[in-house]
C-alpha cells in the first residue's frame, strides 16, 4: 500500500470515528433524552405505514426507539414488541415509561441476540439508519433486519434525501431546532440594536446552511454520501436518493411495497422532500 493510500485510509477512519462520536454525543445529551422522552407524535407518513403494513398481533422489532415515541402505537396491538436503541439513557427512559415492555441497548448493526425469522415487522423510523457511521455498518444493519424477519415480513424505514435544498416548518423537531436558532439570532440582533422577525430569518439561515453544506459536496451530485445535518451541523448523516436506497435494500433481499415522502400526504419533490419512507417486504 502506498503512502497516499495509507493516508487516505487513515482520513476515512477518522471521519467515521468522528461521525460516530457526533451521533453518540447528541443522543446521550440529557436535553436530547428529555426531549425524545416527551415527544410522542407520529408523522402522517408513519401513521399510514404502520396502519397499512403492521397488522394486529404482529411480532414487532422497533429499532432506534429513542424515548419511546413509536412504542405506544406499535406495542398496543402487537403480539410481541421489542424496542432497541444504541443509547442506554434512551433505553432507560423507555423502561421508565413502559415498564411492562422489552427494551435493549443494542447496536442496530448487530442483532445477533435475535433468532432468524423471529419478527413479522421491523421498524427503523426517523432516519435512524442514517446515523450509522459507515456504509459497511449500514449494509450490515439492513442485512440483519432481513435475517430477523420471517419470509414475507415487512421492514419500514426512512432515509434522508441528499438532493433536498428546501425544507418546511411542519415537523416538531424541525420547529424546535429552528426556534433554538431563532432565539440565538434574536439575542445577537437585539444586542446590536437590530429589530427583526427572527424565526423566518432563522429558517433562511437553515436553508442557506443546507445549500452550503450540500451543493459543495460530492454526495449531492452523486445522489449518495455522508452530508452534514443543516439543523445540527456537528452531525454528519448518510443520505441517498430513493432510487439508490431501493437498490441498496434490494441487494439485501427486499422488494419495495410503498415509497412516500416524509411530508406525506403532500406529493414528494426532489428538492423539497427531506426524507423518504419505505415499506419493504422480505422476499
Features of the shown structure:
methyltransferase; transmembrane; transferase; alpha/beta; 7-stranded mixed β-sheet; 9 strands; S-adenosylmethionine-dependent methyltransferase activity; two-stranded antiparallel ribbon; 283 residues; Rossmann fold; 23% strand; Class I SAM-dependent methyltransferase; globular
CATH superfamily of one domain: Vaccinia Virus protein VP39
Structural class: alpha/beta
Distance between the termini: 40 Å
Radius of gyration, whole Å: 19 Å
Overall helicity? 40-55%
What CATH first level of one domain would be assigned?
Alpha Beta
* Share in β-strands: 15-25%
Strand numbers in spatial order across the main sheet? 3-2-1-4-5-9-8
What average pLDDT do the residues reach?
A: 84
Taken from the alpha-carbon principal axes, the silhouette is globular
CATH architecture of one domain: 3-Layer(aba) Sandwich
Largest sheet: 7 strands, mixed
The helix count comes to 10
Ranges where pLDDT stays below 50 over 5 or more residues in a row are: 4-12, 169-175, 192-197
Quaternary state of this entry equals single chain
Q: Which H/E pattern describes the elements? A: HHHEHEHEEHEHHHEEHEE
Number of E strands: 9
Task: Describe the structure in your own words.
It is a single chain. Helices cover 45% and strands 23% of the residues. Residues 4-12, 169-175 and 192-197 have low confidence and may be disordered. It has a domain at 30-162 and 239-282: Vaccinia Virus protein VP39 (Rossmann fold, 3-Layer(aba) Sandwich). Helix 2 runs parallel beside helix 5 (88-97). With 283 residues, it is of the alpha/beta class. It has a 7-stranded mixed beta sheet, with helices on both faces. The chain has helices at residues 3-28, 30-38, 44-53, 71-76, 88-97, 135-148, 172-191, 198-215, 218-222, 242-251, and strands spanning 59-63, 80-85, 102-105, 119-124, 149-160, 224-229, 232-240, 254-261, 275-282. Strand 4, helix 6 and strand 5 (149-160) form a beta-alpha-beta unit. One of its GO terms (molecular function) is S-adenosylmethionine-dependent methyltransferase activity. Residues 61-157 form the Methyltransferase type domain. Keywords: Membrane, Methyltransferase, Transferase, Transmembrane, Transmembrane helix. It comes from Candidatus Korobacter versatilis. InterPro entries: Methyltransf_11, SAM-dependent_MTases_sf.
Amino acid at each position: 500500500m502506498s503512502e497516499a493510500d495509507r493516508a487516505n485510509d487513515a482520513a476515512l477512519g477518522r471521519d467515521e470515528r468522528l461521525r460516530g462520536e457526533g451521533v453518540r454525543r447528541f443522543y446521550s445529551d440529557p436535553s436530547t433524552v428529555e426531549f425524545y422522552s416527551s415527544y410522542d407524535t407520529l408523522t402522517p407518513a408513519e401513521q399510514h405505514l404502520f396502519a397499512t403494513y403492521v397488522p394486529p398481533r404482529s411480532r414487532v422489532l422497533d429499532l432506534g426507539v429513542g424515548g419511546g415515541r413509536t412504542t405506544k402505537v406499535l406495542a398496543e396491538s402487537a403480539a410481541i414488541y421489542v424496542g432497541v436503541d444504541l443509547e442506554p439513557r434512551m433505553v432507560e427512559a423507555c423502561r421508565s415509561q413502559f415498564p411492562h415492555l422489552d427494551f435493549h441497548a443494542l447496536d442496530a448493526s448487530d442483532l445477533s441476540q435475535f433468532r432468524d425469522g423471529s419478527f413479522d415487522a421491523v421498524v427503523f423510523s426517523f432516519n435512524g439508519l442514517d446515523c450509522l457511521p459507515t456504509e459497511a455498518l449500514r449494509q450490515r444493519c439492513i442485512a440483519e433486519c432481513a435475517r430477523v424477519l420471517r419470509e414475507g415480513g415487512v421492514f419500514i424505514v426512512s432515509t434522508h434525501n441528499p438532493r433536498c435544498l428546501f425544507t418546511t416548518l411542519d415537523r416538531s423537531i424541525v420547529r424546535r431546532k429552528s426556534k433554538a436558532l431563532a432565539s440565538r439570532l434574536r439575542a445577537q440582533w437585539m444586542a446590536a440594536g437590530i429589530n427583526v422577525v427572527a424565526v423566518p430569518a432563522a429558517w433562511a439561515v437553515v436553508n442557506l446552511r443546507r445549500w452550503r453544506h450540500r451543493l459543495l459536496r460530492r454526495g449531492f451530485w452523486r445522489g449518495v454520501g455522508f452530508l452534514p445535518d443543516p439543523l445540527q451541523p456537528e452531525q454528519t448523516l448518510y443520505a441517498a436518493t430513493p432510487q439508490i436506497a431501493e437498490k441498496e435494500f434490494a441487494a439485501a433481499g427486499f422488494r419495495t411495497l410503498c415509497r412516500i415522502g416524509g411530508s406525506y400526504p403532500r406529493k414528494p419533490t426532489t428538492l423539497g422532500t427531506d426524507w423518504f419512507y419505505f415499506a419493504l417486504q422480505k422476499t
